[in-house]
Each structure stands twice: as structure tokens, then as C-alpha cells.
Amino acid sequence: MINEHWLIPLTPQAQSFGIVLAGCEYRLTLRWFDVPEAGWHIDIQEPEAAAPILLGMHLAAGCDLLKPYAYQEYNGGLWLSSELAAGPDELGEKVRLLFGLGDINEELYAPVMAALAKARAARDAELAEAYKARSAEGVRNAEDYNTRLREEQERRDAAMIAACCELRLILADLAGVTCIQ
Fold it and tell me: Please, which contacts does 50-59 make with residues 24 or more away whose CB atoms are closer than 8 Å?
């Protein structure tokens, strides 16, 4: 069961700061890499000497980022607050980084992940239908079509994120956990 979790204060820019997590001091460094499939990465270091503990870990959505490193005994887990990865201007604002005691992902967020997977499948089906309809209309300008499709995807993604946040609060309330928004 989850006892507590904390929001790690971030801004959508490269940063380095000291923090205490589960009674241990760390230095966190976050960087954005603007290349395909890269995104945000985090380094975890000892606070004083900046001795590396974990370097270059990609901030992947939908999982406990520290689970593969359980042998290092972090006494908790690290999660993004969204099923979707953070863009260059979203970390700390639309997508937050959480540290928690217990297994947030499996105990609380599993229903959220399942709901998101279902919503993604529905979104993909709608986009396929929209593509067929636009093809039938004879859309001639591919750039305009791609822009409209991208805007439609962003609108649906924003709606999914909002629904996920509402569902997370409901699930947290049912589990008796205080959520930090």
C-alpha cells in the first residue's frame, strides 16, 4: 500500500538541485535532449561530491523509473504523473515527477493505465476514420491535412490527460491516499 508520495518541484528547463527522498540526500540533474526518441533524462548523484549513482536515465512514462535499480535501495519509486512522455515545455507543468513510498504504478495506477490504453485504441480508430473521410473528400494539400490531424491528436491527448488526472484523483481517494496535484 502507498503511504506517501511527493511532487518533485521542476521547471521545463535543464536544472540541477539537491533533494531529500525517503530520508536520503541526492542531487538530481535533468536535461532535455532534442533528438528523436530522446526527451528528458535524469542523473541521480551523491549530494556533496556529485558521485554518480544513476546517470542518463530516460524519463519514460507509465512505469516506476527506479524499479530496475531496486538493488540500490532507493526506498521508493519515481513516476511521471502522466501516461504520456513530457515534451520540452511540459516537465513540471503538464507532466510532474513524483517520488513515492510503495508501488504507485501497480497498486493505484494500473486502472488508469488500462483506461488510457482503451482510450488510445479508441483515438486511433477515430483518427483512422478521420483519415478515410478526409481522403474521400479529396484533401489535396498534405501539409494542411497533417497540421489539422496533429491539432486533432493534440486536442484528444489533452482530453485523455485531463480524464486520467480526474481518474487518478478518484482512485487515490478510494485508496485513501492524498494526491498532490
Answer: 53/26, 59/30, 59/85, 59/86, 59/91, 59/97
Cell numbers found for residue 133 = 473521410
Q: Using a cut of 0.90, tell me whether the model's pTM lies above it.
A: no
Orientation of helix 110-137 relative to helix 142-175, angle to 10°: 160
What is the distance between the alpha carbons of residues 142 and 124, in angstroms, rounded to a whole number?
Answer: 19
Pair 7, 92: CB distance under 8 Å: no
Compare 101 and 59 and report the one with higher pLDDT.
Answer: 59
**pLDDT tens string 97-131:** 888 776 554 555 555 556 666 766 777 788 778 77
